[in-house]
Amino acid sequence: MNDSQYHQMTDDLLLSIEEMLDECEVDIDYESAGSILTMTFENGTKIIINKQPPLHQLWVATKFNGHHFNFQDELWIDERTGVEFWSFLDEAATKQAGQNVSLRK
Questions:
Q1: What whole-number distance in Å separates Cα of residue 88 and Cα of residue 18?
Q2: C-alpha 88: how far from chain center
């Protein structure tokens, strides 16, 4: 993928997350600033998703640890665990919210 494709894909992904958070039944605030999306939970914990253009990666920091996602076979995959991005995000948000969070229907 070239730089332009990377930026389009990651910008679309961040916008999709914002739209899903607007529809989410769990109250999760968010703030978007450039290439960073910060999700804030009622208990004050955060998940921060940011673009890493030089590496063509998405980085996600949770209360518990950090993850780097690479685009492989049409999916964003955690380079350490092999978990797909959307599954990871739902699981991480569920842990931090203390209740079931399902962003992708």
A1: 16
A2: 8
Q: Distance from CA of residue 103 to its chain's centroid?
A: 10
Q: Which residue has the tokens 């949770």?
A: 62
Q: CA 43, CA 59: separation in Å to the nearest integer?
A: 22
- Sign of the CA dihedral running 51, 55, 58, 64: negative
Q: With 0.90 as the threshold, say if the pTM is over it.
A: yes
In angstroms, the CA 98 to CA 6 distance is 33
Helix extents (H) in the chain: 3-23, 85-97
Q: For 49-78, write each residue's pLDDT tens digit.
A: 999 999 999 999 999 999 999 999 999 999
Which pair of tokens denotes residue 66?
A: 């950090």
Q: Residue 51: enclosing H or E segment and its boundaries? A: strand 46-52
Look up residue 80 and give its amino acid.
R
Tokens of residue 37, six digits: 């999306």
Q: Are 46 and 100 in contact (CB under 8 A)?
A: no
